[in-house]
Amino acid sequence: MRPGAAAATAPGTATSTATSTATGTGQAPCHHGEILQGVFLDAAGRRCAGLVTLPMAGPGSSAAFVRRPGAEPEALTVAPADRTKAARAAALTVAECARRTGQPPCGGELRLTGEIPVGLGMGSSSSDVIAAVRAVADSYGLRLEPSTVAGLAVRAELASDPLMLGGRPVLFAQREGRVLEVLGPALPPLVVVGCALGGGAPVDTLSLPVAEVGDSDVRAYERLRALLRRAVATGSAELLGAVATASARRGQQVLGHPEFDALAVLARRVGAVGVQIAHSGAVAGVLFDPAAPGLRRRVRGCLRALDAHGIPATRTFTTFAGAGTTTKEIPNHGHGPAHRGVDRPAGPDTPRRPARLPAL
Questions:
Q1: In sequence order, what E strands does the chain have?
Q2: Whole-model pTM?
Q3: Rounded to an integer, what distance in angstroms lies between the CA atom of residue 69 and that of residue 87?
Q4: What is the pLDDT of residue 207?
């Protein structure tokens, strides 16, 4: 996570950093799709949609909010104008911060910048929303606890990625804004060769069919959850790869990317531990154990195989275990073209940035 001026403090706290602040800034990262996504049981035994994202450094959203005391709450503008989810988040956060500080709600101006590709399942809208929440809070001199940020994000966009929680691997109920389980301090170290399925075309998540989930499906997801918990506890990249691959295969029942089977086969051939995908987008990754012998040869072979199959390579990066999970980019040395952006929108809030990731 790349905290900015409005980064969250420890859970359960909300602190005032200024008595009168009219402007504020906030940032939020993106992610590289999911390691696991499905339907799980919460502590009360109730079914709950949940996911575990793969953190990635790089593109993110930045927000600046200029608060206008005395202006009507409806006088809240956002630029670019199509960021309607972020605008809703800003309005909700104004109301929350005004309540906490005893001030009347007011309008303001929200400006967002960032280079997260749209429609690939990298959390572009969640990043915008969380950055907006943090910027508004900062304008009031407040730092909101992560649980509050999560609640505001879900209210603004109906479902949110757990980008407000940092790099710890958590099973997150994206439609409820709550953590179902903290899986451990950090993911096992990985080298990820990113790519884009479907030619990099954005995915219209609203048009995807809703899969029926039965008791056998929930049991399968719970088994994957237990395996991922063990992978984190033991630092096993191989076990994590198996979980991610199994979850990705289940996700293909809805997404149906025609290149997925080829991706899974080439991953095995080059000695990867598995593959992961965005369950609501086109981004995917081939996962390698950084401790495996001949890693550079394997990664080069993967890039050549992706090129041969016409699957655009995007970026190669590593995740490192430490104080949370951090990521570092690795040059692709010319292997694999950048995938081509497509202007087809992925929903009412997405036709704002080209769906591109640079080939590095």
A1: 15-16, 23-41, 47-68, 76-79, 107-114, 142-143, 170-173, 178-182, 190-196, 274-277, 283-288, 313-322, 324-330
A2: 0.83
A3: 17
A4: 65
